[in-house]
Amino acid sequence: MKNKRKSAHIYILILSSVVCISCKGQNKTGLPKGNIKSETKKIVTSTGPNNTTRNIIQDRKGNIWIAAYDGIFRYDGKSFTNITSKVSLARFFSVLEDRKGNLWFGSIGSGVFLYDGKSFKNFTTREGLAGNDVACIYEDKKGNIWFGTGSGASRYDGESFRNFTTKEGLSYDDVNSIVEDKTGKFWFGTGGNACIYDGKTFTVLTHYGKPFTNVRSIIEDKKGNIWMGGNDGLWRYSGGTFTNFTQNFVGCIYEDKKGNIWTGSASANGQDLSLSRYDEKSLGFVSAKGQWVLSRYDEKSLANKTPAVTEIKPEEGMICGILEANDGSIWLGAFGVYRYDGSTITDFKGKEVRK
What we know:
- The chain is mainly beta.
- Helices cover 8% and strands 43% of the residues.
- The protein has a single domain (38-354), classed as YVTN repeat-like/Quinoprotein amine dehydrogenase (Methylamine Dehydrogenase, Chain H, 7 Propeller).
- The strands form 8 sheets. It has a 5-stranded antiparallel β-sheet with strand order 1-10-9-8-7. A 5-stranded antiparallel β-sheet has the order 2-6-5-4-3, with no helix packed on it.
- A hairpin with a 4-residue loop joins strand 13 (152-156) and strand 14.
């Protein structure tokens, strides 16, 4: 028994030296002093994630960053590198490059990681983060970093966190998406109702007297219009008016360089699509039915009552993240990561999916 206790104690010490940050003498909302050093030995492969991919971005150097359940991957145009393989075994959900060139990685269960290209810092509820399940990350016009968590929203100013929960007026604590519009107001998509924050008060969004429910994605387009997707379908807010484009569940929205709107959506076909990021069974059920599609709404026809829509069916389940790369190709996250060149979808688990 003594040997077992001794072994367990040694294991905890080793694990703490690799993963944990010393917070001795730290205020809960202060910047941690310690770093998680990134390992010099990283896993480099010719294939990408082999699990659910939630978010994809491209940094200022042209590298593509992928947040997946089996790690954070960087693609340099030739190979994939699992950046977090020696740092954390958490499932990663979100990724952001801030204006300083730092990378932020949101995880499920382990908070958020700040990566400066050499080392990591980990922020959790211990440092003041609202919750350790981080679904989205957003940088506002002032350079503050916002985190949507399962326990509210957090705003980080570089030194401390300010949290917003239902106690402060947030409509629901499970936050899926955050965006600041051209007027400085913040739009929150949550697992409950969507709402707007004007810096003082939260107001629940409604259309025809009904709130928008389980909003998964919100973006502002180049013209200043707000797009929202969730249980109520795809909606655009423009000039004080909401316009509906589809009633199918929409999980993610993206605007490309030409102003086309891309979505990952699922047709309910009578099924209940009140999806939660924790409800993998229902997500899998929809995927198994082959109901998820990648849709492109043509920019030139968005003013029409029935805009031109092109649908691409990857047949790889839930579509979570969309990115237009510098070369014009469209990347999408599903079970793994895929690239669409306008005619062919390439699966980076090593096979071509569809022509």
